[in-house]
Write a structure and sequence with these properties.
The structure holds two protein chains of two kinds. Chain A has one domain: Sodium/glucose cotransporter. In chain A, helix 16 runs parallel beside helix 18. By secondary structure, chain A is mainly α. The longest helix of chain A has 50 residues. The termini of chain A are far apart. Chain B is mostly helical. Chain B has one domain. Helices cover 83% and strands 5% of the residues of chain B. Chain B has a two-stranded antiparallel sheet with strand order 1-2. In chain B, helix 2 packs antiparallel against helix 4. In chain B, 22% of the residues are buried. Classes of the chains: A mainly alpha, B mainly alpha.
Chain lengths: 520, 103
C-alpha cells in the first residue's frame, strides 16, 4: 500500500460520506428516499444514469477484453450503448409518466394485480442481488489486489459503505455518489486515452498499425471472431445486450427522480452522450494496454483482464496516476452497488411491504423506516453472499442478470405500454417463461455444465453461453400465448386508453373526458 | 367547447394526432436502428473478408462499421430530441383544451 493510493481512497470515502451526511436531513419521506423528491435536473440525472450504468465491469472488463481479444471486446461497448435507443424511444418517458417510485408502480396503472406486483418485485430483487453479487466479488478481488487487504475485509467495507449511503442518504446521496463517480471515471479515462494517443504521435492509424504486431493474434487482433467465433453466440449476446440493459432496475428507478417527461428525455439523452464518449475511449485503454503493458504481462496478472486499466496507468503515469485510476475503479464499484441496494430495497419496502403486506395503509414514517431496514438487510445479505462466493465465476452471474432483465422484464414492459389486447395473465406467463427460460439456459449452458471445472460436471446440454437467443423469444412467446389464452378483463379497453393517455401526456385522463368517453 | 362527435371524444383530435405522429416516427426509427445494428454481426458472419478490408492504414471496414453504430445512436437520439418538441407542443395543446373544457 502506498501513500497516494491511501490518500485517493480516503478522499473518495470521505467525500461520499460528506454527501451522505448533507443528504441525510432530506430523507424524511418516501418521495425523498426513493426519488430524491423529483428535484434532479435532466443533466444531473443523465450524469447519474451514466454513473449507474458504467459499472466496474465496463470500465475494467471491456478494456481488458479489448486488450485480449481486440475487436470482439469493442462489440460489448457498442451493444451497451445502442440499447439506450430502446430506452429513449420506447421506454423512458412512458414509464416516468406512469410510475411513482418503481417499475411495478408503472405497470400497476394498467394491471392492479397483487400477484403481478409481487412477481415484478421478485424479479427486481433477483436481478439486483445477482448483479450486486457480481460487482461485490469483483470489487473484493480488485481491492485485495490494489491495497493488499484481505478479500473478506474488502467486501465487508464496500458492503458497509453502500449500506450507509442508502440508509442515511436515500436517493439524494445515491444520485450524487453516481454523479461524482461518473465525472471521475470520465476524466480518468480521458486522461489515459490522451496519454495513449500521444505515445502514438496522435495518430489513430499508427496505433492500429502497431497493436496488430504486438499480440499473439497478430493480424487477426483487429478482426472479429477471436472471442465470439460462433455466429449464433454472437447474435445471442447482441440481443441480451441491447434488450437487457435498458430494463435493469437501478436504471429504471432513476427515471422517477426528475419532475417531468421532458427532463426524463434529457436525462437519457445526456447519459447516451456520456456513455458513447466513454465506450469510444475504451478502445484507447484496451489498445494502450496491449501495446504498453503487453499480452504476457496482462496474462500473468490474470484476473480475467480486470486489472488492465490499472496496469496501463502504472506503465504510463507511474504511482500517482495508478493511485488515481484505482480510486476511480473503487468509486465506480461503490456507486454501482449503492444504486443496486436502493433499487432492491425499494422493491421490497415499497412493492412488497407497503402495497402487498400493508395494502397502502402504512404511514410515510413507517414506510421510510421499513425502506431503511430493508436496505440494511439487502446490504447484509449480499455482503454475506459475496464473501461466500469468492471463488465463483462472476461471468455466470452477469450473464444471468442481463438474460433475466431482457427475457422476463422487457416483453412485459413493452406489451404493457403498447399492446392493446395484452392481459394480466399474459404479463404473468411472460415473466414466468422468460425467467425460467433464462435460468434453465444458463444452467444447461457451458458456464455451469462443464466436464472439467463446471458446477455440474458433464457435457453442456445447450452450447450457448449467452442464453438470450432462446430465453428472450420465450419471454415474448409466454406473453403472447398467455394473452391469447385469456379473456380481457371487463373494461380492459377503457383502461388501456387511460394508460396510453397518461403514458404519452403525463396526465391522468380527466373525469370529464372519461365520462364522455363512457357515454360514447 | 365540446366536440359533439363521439368518435372524436374517444380520441380527442390532439391526442389521436399525437399517437399517430409518434407511431409514424417511432416505428421506422426502431426498424432502422435494429436493422443497422444487427447487420454488424450478420456481415461479420457472411462477409468476413469484406469486413476485414483495410480502409485507412490498418483500420478495417469492421471498425468503421462498429464506430458508425455509436454515431448512429447519437444521431438517432438527437433526431428524436428534435422531433419530440413537436410531440410536446401537441401535449400542451391537449392540456389547454382540457383546462378550457373544465371551465
Amino acid at each position: 500500500m502506498n501513500l497516494p493510493s491511501v490518500i485517493f481512497f480516503l478522499a473518495v470515502i470521505i467525500g461520499t460520506l460528506a454527501i451522505t451526511y448533507s443528504a441525510a436531513k432530506r430523507t424524511g419521506n418516501t418521495s425523498e428516499f426513493y426519488a430524491a423528491g423529483n428535484r434532479l435536473t435532466g443533466l444531473q440525472n443523465g450524469i447519474a444514469i451514466a454513473g449507474d450504468y458504467m459499472s466496474a465491469a465496463s470500465f475494467l472488463g471491456i478494456a481488458g477484453t479489448i486488450a485480449f481479444f481486440g475487436f470482439d471486446g469493442f462489440i460489448y461497448a457498442i451493444g451497451f450503448l445502442v440499447s439506450y435507443l430502446i430506452m429513449l424511444l420506447l421506454i423512458a418517458e412512458p414509464l416516468h409518466n406512469l410510475g411513482r417510485y418503481t417499475l411495478a408502480d408503472a405497470i400497476a396503472v394498467r394491471f392492479e394485480s397483487r400477484l403481478l406486483r409481487g412477481m415484478i418485485a421478485c424479479s427486481t430483487l433477483l436481478i439486483c442481488i445477482l448483479y450486486m453479487l457480481a460487482q461485490l466479488v469483483g470489487a473484493g478481488a480488485l481491492i485485495h489486489h490494489l491495497l493488499h487487504v484481505d478479500y473478506k475485509l474488502a467486501v465487508m467495507s464496500v458492503g458497509l459503505l453502500m449500506t450507509v449511503y442508502v440508509v442515511f442518504g436515500g436517493m439524494v446521496a445515491t444520485s450524487w455518489v453516481q454523479i461524482i463517480k461518473a465525472i471521475m471515471l470520465l476524466t480518468g479515462t480521458f486522461l489515459l486515452s490522451l496519454i495513449v494517443l500521444s505515445r502514438f504521435g496522435w495518430s489513430l492509424t499508427s496505433m492500429f498499425d502497431y497493436v496488430k504486431t504486438v499480440t499473439p493474434f497478430q493480424e487477426r487482433f483487429l478482426q472479429p471472431g477471436n472471442q465470439l467465433n460462433d455466429p449464433l453466440e454472437a447474435i445471442s449476446l447482441h440481443l441480451a445486450l441491447i434488450l437487457g440493459t435498458s430494463c435493469l432496475p437501478h436504471i429504471v428507478s432513476r427515471l422517477f427522480t426528475v419532475k417531468d417527461a421532458i427532463s426524463t428525455r434529457r436525462s437519457i439523452y445526456t447519459a447516451t452522450w456520456i456513455i458513447g464518449a466513454f465506450y469510444l475511449m475504451t478502445i484507447f485503454l484496451g489498445f494502450g494496454a496491449s501495446a504498453f503493458v503487453g499480452y504476457v504481462a496482462l496474462k500473468e496478472v490474470g484476473f480475467g483482464g480486470n486489472l488492465t486499466v490499472t496496469l496501463l496507468a502504472d506503465v504510463l503515469g507511474g504511482e500517482f496516476l495508478t493511485a488515481y485510476i484505482s480510486a476511480v475503479a473503487f468509486a465506480t464499484i461503490l456507486a454501482v452497488v449503492t444504486g443496486l441496494v436502493l433499487s432492491a430495497s425499494s422493491a421490497f419496502a415499497h412493492d412488497v411491504y407497503s402495497h402487498l403486506i400493508r395494502k397502502g395503509l402504512a404511514s410515510e414514517k413507517e414506510q421510510v423506516w421499513v425502506a431503511k431496514c430493508s436496505s440494511v438487510v439487502v446490504g447484509l445479505v449480499s455482503t454475506w453472499l459475496a464473501i461466500g462466493a469468492e471463488k465463483m465465476n462472476v461471468a455466470i452471474l452477469v450473464g444471468l442478470t442481463f438474460a433475466v432483465a431482457a427475457s422476463a422484464n422487457l416483453p412485459m414492459i413493452l406489451s404493457t405500454l403498447y399492446w392493446r389486447r395484452f392481459t394480466v395473465q399474459g404479463a404473468i406467463t411472460g415473466m414466468v417463461s422468460g425467467l425460467l427460460a433464462s435460468i434453465l439456459m444458463v444452467v444447461m449452458g457451458p458456464m455451469v455444465m462443464n466436464p472439467e471445472d463446471g458446477l455440474i460436471l458433464r457435457e453442456p446440454i445447450s452450447a450457448l453461453t449467452n442464453p438470450g437467443l432462446v430465453s428472450i423469444p420465450f419471454g415474448f412467446l409466454g406473453a403472447i400465448v398467455g394473452t391469447l389464452c385469456s379473456r380481457p378483463a371487463v373494461g380492459a379497453d377503457e383502461r388501456f386508453h387511460q394508460v396510453l393517455y397518461q403514458a404519452h401526456t403525463g396526465k391522468r385522463m380527466t373525469k370529464h373526458r372519461e365520462l364522455e368517453r363512457k357515454g360514447a | 367547447m365540446k366536440p359533439d362527435n363521439s368518435r372524436q371524444v374517444a380520441y380527442s383530435p390532439f391526442f389521436g394526432l399525437l399517437l399517430q405522429k409518434k407511431k409514424h416516427f417511432l416505428v421506422p426509427m426502431c426498424l432502422i436502428f435494429l436493422i443497422f445494428y444487427f447487420s454488424l454481426p450478420v456481415l461479420i458472419t457472411l462477409k468476413p473478408d469484406w469486413m476485414n478490408r483495410p480502409v485507412v492504414g490498418s483500420i478495417s471496414i469492421a471498425w468503421i462499421f462498429a464506430t458508425a453504430q455509436c454515431v448512429m445512436t447519437l444521431l438517432l437520439s438527437s433526431i428524436y430530441m428534435w422531433r419530440a418538441r413537436e410531440f410536446d407542443r401537441l401535449v400542451q395543446e391537449l392540456r389547454n383544451e382540457e383546462s378550457e373544457e373544465e371551465k
